[in-house]
Amino acid sequence: xxxxxxxxxxxxxxxxxxxxxxxxxxxxxxxxxxxxxxxxxxxxxxxxxxxxxxxxxxxxxxxxxxxxxxxxxxxxxxxxxxxxxxxxxxxxxxxxxxxxxxxxxxxxxxxxxxxxxxxxxxxxxxxxxxxxxxxxxxxxxxxxxxxxxxxxxxxxxxxxxxxxxxxxxxxxxxxxxxxxxxxxxxxxxxxxxxxxxxxxxxxxxxxxxxxxxxxxxxxxxxxxxxxxxxxxxxxxxxxxxxxxxxxxxxxxxxxxxxxxxxxxxxxxxxxxxxxxxxxxxxxxxxxxxxxxxxxxxxxxxxxxxxxxxxxxxxxxxxxxxxxxxxxxxxxxxxxxxxxxxxxxxxxxxxxxxxxxxxxxxxxxxxxxxxxxxxxxxxxxxxxxxxxxxxxxxxxxxxxxxxxxxxxxxxxxxxxxxxxxxxxxxxxxxxxxxxxxxxxxxxxxxxxxxxxxxxxxxxxxxxxxxxxx
Length: 468
Known about the structure:
By secondary structure, this protein is α/β, with parallel strands linked by helices. The protein is about 45% helix and about 20% strand.
């Protein structure tokens, strides 16, 4: 039977309309919603799809996340610096590349099996479902992308509540994750967020019955909030990583490694060297070598006091805290503010101080290193333990004495302990291993990866599948 032109137009219109119903909306493509309730609902729908997909398909999505991250290194880095005012574009490019190339995917998951006379038992790693994640302003898009790879590899979807100071770059990273899924033929909303993240949107996330796992990367306040939620929570909080240098260390190498680690992205990584404890007999040589590697030695006590006033300020409740105006800023800008003519070749400010100095006691996240002298290696290690404040986060040591390295590692009991290298070696940059920007020292998971975001599931077949 012939079909008229008018009837044909109607059929085409009907087909196109039905196709539109399956075409992701702009919100779904980006994963950015007006409300947290909408973001969570969208993630629930996406998780139902992704958990049915084979690992091979999840890996296709992850491959696309890696590809899109590498294609957007410059925009991600520039947006992060422009929006937050923190860090350095070149270093942020390095960090994003590290995330794209070395964050574990589905290969991080494993299965345990037992077989015997009574059958076969498997223990597999299954997804939690929808994960609620809080991300910081210091490493915003790096954390979003790294978390997304691990969480999606495990079969989860994720809803982010980014730091308000990094909404733009965090949202851009979320949109890249969703684009990666859609490119692979997967669902939209494998990552979602809100246009305006606030404490209220975070509270909705904490209380949602659709979110069984919370992951917080940030300061002690946000970590305490998720740990108080009554849900399973992973807390990646503060640290104040000391670096101890004893009399047996290769001093030129130690100085170079310390300055390199301390100044990566202007000391924004939470693992970075925050203060130095040096055995007195090698302290002068260490200081000389640090200056050869771009450090400026501040000797004037009045200027050191002024630096402390700039870097650590009272908050609304009167408690002393780091100044948001100076976190992640270039070292030479501090010096110019102190009236010292300095150029961008200055990478770090160093000064000598007692152990109780506020710039030594406080996690600054600035390219500033206080140097404390110790009588001997034992006293240096004891100081290092005190300065880490029991955060169990990160610590570093330069020594050729295996007994001292072993002793300090046991004493400090941190999630990360780097020996004879820059702090970033712990993230697989110049060292073995994988990167993460969610280091859960407080809750004990340590460096998080795909397996961290799974729950253990046991499957038992009795009296079968044993073919011995």
